[in-house]
Structure formats: structure tokens, C-alpha cells
Amino acid sequence: MDAMTLPTFDDVLAAAARIAPHAHVTPVLRSRTLDALAGCELHFKCEPLQRAGAFKFRGACNAVWSLAPEDAARGVVTHSSGNHGAALALAASTRGIPCHVVVPEGAVAAKLAAIQAYGAILHRCAPSIAAREETAARVQLETGATFVHPYTDPRVIAGQGTAAMELLNATGGLDVLATPVGGGGLASGCALSLAALAPDCELLLAEPAGAADTARSLAAGRLELDFVPDTICDGLRGTLGAPDFAILGAHGARVAVVEDARTIEAMRLLWTRLKLLVEPSSAIAFAAVLAQRERLAGKRVGVLLTGGNVDLDAIAESFASASRAA
To answer: Domain spanning 57-147 has what CATH number?
Structure first.
């Protein structure tokens, strides 16, 4: 499968078989208290308990184990603010191959530490998408490594789709599936699984107000990516990928734009009620559900909690700021 090929549900099924020896089947949690708050029946898919602490391991693992032996030997390279880089580094270690990760200045320290702990070679660059791509291209040229894009690589999209497939199988069906959207790899993978397994299930995409390019792009019918991200959701600052836009547009996904203050409130609820450590980029999916209480009343709603790699010092200040603003 080349980079221009849109994945299909058959690719999701193949990914599920490929990653099965390496990835966790994460639990689905319930909470009567949160059901009452949201006014619907909630099923939380707990990807913070995935290897490397986020759903990203699914796509990274599928990409690594899809490589032919001669390509794998030269390693893999990517650019990432954290979770994808850590996931690719860990996936590469399961196959014993080199991993290079281009990281922007200002990335979350806890996530950079995780990338290094999994054995990746770090390459730092300026905090812009252009700088990331230029540096990754240089590293790829120098090493011969295979580039694994965080959210447009079809192998990554297919791997991410396995999370939704597991959730649907565990619950027996849903009316709505809520998931965060940044670059769109997880969202488009979920769309593939829903189209095949639950075509009547609504896909609700939760996007930060300070990085709402998916909402603008789907509304306009074309990619609109000219913006500077401003959100606490560091994992959702990437621009929507072209293949992801194509898949999401075909699926008719609905986007909920969420202010950071509401995301912090939802995160606090998940920490205190579900007893699960989630990061802002994960909690936003629950925030989107809470914001649509009347529309979702009585429905069976899956919430994809995507990761739990948290900078605890920064989050403490975020909680304090949210309390002062309330």
C-alpha cells in the first residue's frame, strides 16, 4: 500500500491480525455517575492503558510490521510532538529496528522522555509543520529509513481503526462514537470501521476551538489549513491530512468544536470519577458529549479516550486556571 492509497476496512482487519501479538485489547469502562451527568449510556474505550500510553501504538505497530524485511532493516522515521513518536519507537523496538523521531521545540517534556526511553534517536526542529517535514525528509535521505507519517500513512489509519472495531465488538453496537480529531488518522480509521460494522452509528469528532481546521474544512468541502493552533490539546494541533479529509467527508462525520475550559472540566471528571489518567487531547471527546446532552439523551455513546501521557506540572496549573476562571 503506497502513501496515496486510501485504506479500506479490509486493511483494518489485516491490521488487527498484524498487531494482535503486540498491542493490548484495552478495557471498556462504565460509570453510572457519568451516565447521569451526560444523560446517556457511556462506554469509555481506555486507550491510555494501551502500550506507550495511547492509541497511537496501534497504527505505528501496523506500519512497522507491514514493512518488508529489507526496508525494516533501514529503520523508520517520523515527526511527532509526542505520542506517535513514542509509539513508533516502541513498535520499532518490537522488531529490533532503528527509529528516528523529529520533535519540535516546546514539546511536552514527559512525552519526549518517553520517546527516548523507548530507544528512538531524537532530531530537534523549529515548532512548525514545515520544519518538521523538512527535517524528517533530511533524516530519511541520510538513513534510508521509511517515513511513517503520524496520521496520513494508510497503514497508520488502518491500525487506528482497530480501536473502534474493538469498541463495537465489546459493546454490541452504539448509536454514537465520539473521538478526538487532530490530523485525522484515528477519526478516519474509526470511519472505516463504522461504515463496515455499524453504518447507522454517528461519528462525532471533538476538535479544539483553537485548532478547528477539520470543522472548517468539512464545512467548506475543501482543506482549510491556514491557522496557528492555540489549544491545551497538544496532540490535536496538527492539520487535517488529505486522505483523512477524503475519508471523513465521505462518511459524513459531525464535528463538535470545544473550548479548552470545557475540556479541562471533562478531564477533571474523568480523573475523579473514572479514576483514569487522561490527557486533554483525550478528554475533549467526553467534553463534546457533555456539551450535547439534549441531542444525545438516552443514546448508547462510545467515547474513545485516546491517551494518558500527561505533563503533571502543566496540568496542575491548567486545573488551577480553570478554577479561577469559573
So the answer is: 3.40.50.1100
How is the beta sheet containing 176-180 ordered, strand by strand?
Answer: 28-29, 41-46, 300-305, 176-180, 202-208, 254-258
Q: What is the pLDDT of residues 32-79, one digit of tens each?
A: 999 999 999 999 999 999 999 999 999 999 999 999 999 999 999 999
Q: How far is CA 57 from CA 9, 93, 270, in A?
A: 19, 12, 22
Query: Concatenated DSSP letters for 91-113?
Result: HHHHHT--EEEEEETT--HHHHH
Residue 45 grid coordinates: 474505550
In Å, the largest CA–CA distance within the chain is: 57
Domain boundary assignment for the chain: 9-54+153-325, 57-147
Residues 109 and 115: their CA atoms lie apart, in Å, by 10
Grouping H, G, I as helix, E, B as strand and the rest as coil, residue 275 is: coil
d(CA 187, CA 207): 11
pLDDT digits (tens, 9 = 90+) for 179-204: 999 999 999 999 999 999 999 999 99
Fold for 9-54+153-325, please state it. Answer: Rossmann fold (3.40.50)
Sign, Cα dihedral of 206, 207, 212, 218: negative
The sign of the dihedral angle between the CA atoms of 71, 73, 74, 78 is positive
